[in-house]
């Protein structure tokens, strides 16, 4: 099983859209996926038509004193090969209470360990975690359990600052979460960058492509395509659009590149 977190310090880079469509791609090739919505905006949960505000991701933190959480986590079976632990709209409020709690950044790590058999976590090939665009307690929890962190960027002129910011914060988290017996960090995730919303043949996008080519942490990129926006608006994944012969015939190169980029992320 592999755990992948999609994380970004700044918003508007398409993180949730990528989490959603990458997970749907994995499911389409027969992989069993557990999605965890750690973003209090709950956009990922809403894309999958889950709106419940009980038995949510908040319950992962139920061992922290002062939160008074008495609910168990519920795993929603949303479609073939995709399950979901839904987001909680007020998670950010609870994170303020967590900020001074001991072990606050290891709650997801411990929850997975404690509930591995109860929820049959072993059956999943992937756990995909969507996070809020920040480095809050929930984001740190996600990174602490992950094998890979995928951080999207779009052409903006500020990607270097964003990259150095998340690198600094992950390095600090590695130093903070140390096993004092072995002196090794619990944080072992490898960080990769993914370009997103890259327009065709514009000055800013061409400059961004040059920037990606000069940084080996960038592993692939996704274009700025109306179909990607449509997938969110209609709550329909890219892989489903590819089954429409008319859409496929007009966007064959895009679908081919989409699969290629998903495979790159999968195989890193």
Automatic annotation (TrEMBL):
Ranges in coiled-coil conformation: none
Glycosyltransferase as UniProt keyword: no
SUPFAM superfamilies: P-loop containing nucleoside triphosphate hydrolases
Ranges for domain AAA: 1-175
A Pfam family that the UniProt record links to this protein: AAA_31
Key words, A-Z: Plasmid
Name of the protein described by the UniProt record: Plasmid partition protein
């Amino acid at each position: 099983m592999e755990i992948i977190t999609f994380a970004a310090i700044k918003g508007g880079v398409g993180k949730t859209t990528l989490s959603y469509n990458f997970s749907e791609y994995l499911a389409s090739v027969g992989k069993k996926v557990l999605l965890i919505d750690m973003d209090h905006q709950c956009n990922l949960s809403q894309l999958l038509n889950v709106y419940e505000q009980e038995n949510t991701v908040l319950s992962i933190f139920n061992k922290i004193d002062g939160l008074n959480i008495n609910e168990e986590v519920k795993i929603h079976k949303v479609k073939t090969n995709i399950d979901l632990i839904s987001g909680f709209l007020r998670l950010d409020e609870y994170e303020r209470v967590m900020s001074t709690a001991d072990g606050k950044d290891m709650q997801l790590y411990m929850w997975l360990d404690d509930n591995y058999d109860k929820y049959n976590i072993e059956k999943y090939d992937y756990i995909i975690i969507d996070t809020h665009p920040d480095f809050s307690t929930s984001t740190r929890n996600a990174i602490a359990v992950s094998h890979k962190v995928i951080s999207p960027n779009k052409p903006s002129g500020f990607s270097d600052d964003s990259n150095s910011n998340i690198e600094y914060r992950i390095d600090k988290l590695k130093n903070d979460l140390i096993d004092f017996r072995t002196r090794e960090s619990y944080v072992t995730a490898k960080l990769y960058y993914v370009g997103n919303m890259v327009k065709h043949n514009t000055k800013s996008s061409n400059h961004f492509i040059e920037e990606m080519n000069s940084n080996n942490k960038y592993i692939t990129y996704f274009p700025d395509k109306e179909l990607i926006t449509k997938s969110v608006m209609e709550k329909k994944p890219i892989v489903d659009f590819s089954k429409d012969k008319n859409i496929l015939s007009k966007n064959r190169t895009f679908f081919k590149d989409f699969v290629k980029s998903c495979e790159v992320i999968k195989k890193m």
